[in-house]
Prior knowledge:
globular, mainly alpha, single chain
Amino acid sequence: MNWTLLSPELFFLTAALVFLGISMSGRPDPERDYLTAVVLGAVGLGICLAYVPLRGDLFLGAYRVDLFSQTFKTLLAMGFFLIVCICNDLTGVAERHHPEFYLLLTASTLALMLLVSCVHLLPLYVALELSSYSLYVLVYLRVDLRQGVRAGLTYFLIGAAASAVMIFGLALLYGAAQSAYLADLMTALPGMLHQPMVAIGVLLALAGFFFKLAVFPFHFWAPDVYQGAPHQAAAYIATVSKVAAVAVLIRVAALTGGAGSFLTDALVALAIVSMTVGNLSALVQKDFKRLMAYSSIAQAGYVLIGILSMSPAGYGGAIFYALALLVMKVTCFLVLVAAAGGGRNMEIAGLAGLHRRSPILALALMMAVFSLAGIPPTIGFTGKFLVFKAAIAQGHVSLVLIAMINVVISLYFYLMVVRAAYLTEPQGPQPALLAPPLTRGLAYFLVALTVLAGIYPTPLITWADAAARGLM
Length: 472
């Protein structure tokens, strides 16, 4: 067996073992743990980039390494690195649990990497569950046990229900196609989608990934979990786990080959309801993390528009949008970690005077929310343009009009964030916000990436399209 094909996975397994050893040493040292995580995250990202060209199958064809999977592994490694970079203020987790926190982050990332390469139903389900259980415990680790327990229990119960629905759907698909390999399903399903059992099986099988992506009606957990989890855990759930969900949704949607209108109609309905519910609910939010949760629900609807197009252009647009979500949401949580302090939750009003306390953080937040709103020239605008263009090419003009109405609605609450940071004065004198050098450097990098990917996205679009074409 060519073990080189598993280089990114083996590295993250080694990183997880490093944190397991540190946690068993029983000597808490937050600075050591943080620096170790940052170095390992940077090396992991470098390894994923270096091994993008790898191709091959493993484990009797149940595990595929191709441009599609390697692209998403790079995004996952990038997300892991960015999240550990904002763990410099991990006061939301007790110091004695920091090694376990990094261990669970690494284990979850490893599981998500396995997930995007699985082309067999059984290891795909096992990888999803491994990632989910790591995240349940991550949410539970909040130093404020009252919030952590409630959020962790909510996340676990709804996740378990989604998992049960998903495995039932997988069983229906296996029963219909008599095979658990995605390649066999790809051959059999397009001609069987007119059968209710198969169409329902595909939808139920997607339920677990709808849960990860917080798509309606699997979104109820998101606001409470975001609010109750440590900031960095909420950031990971809002970014890295959603990237993996997008990958598997694209791979499963590609199975159908665009045949059958039942699945497409169902995805159209889910996209419309997710966008509308997310944006309307966000209008009345005062807590910053709950606003981010409802924003994620709405953004999931935009991602679905690319996927339901059932075309290489749509899948490429969804891949680009996954990168955009990663950049935009990490930027928002970077500002939250720095501005809130002490791991406490913060209301939007708490951003008052941010432009005076830290001009770079205020600028980063403004660019992130402009990008989430789809204002040019940002990476979020390009992502929306790509998925809307793909949908129109497939005749979904009404859907795009509804999406654009939702974009207009979302402008209100995104601009309220900018208003709080730039136009609202704090009630009393506020000290300058002295962010660490790594935080400031990361803020500059994310602002630059947000703008550059909006002005000149061609290389990223070319990469995303090439990854998508590999599925067809």
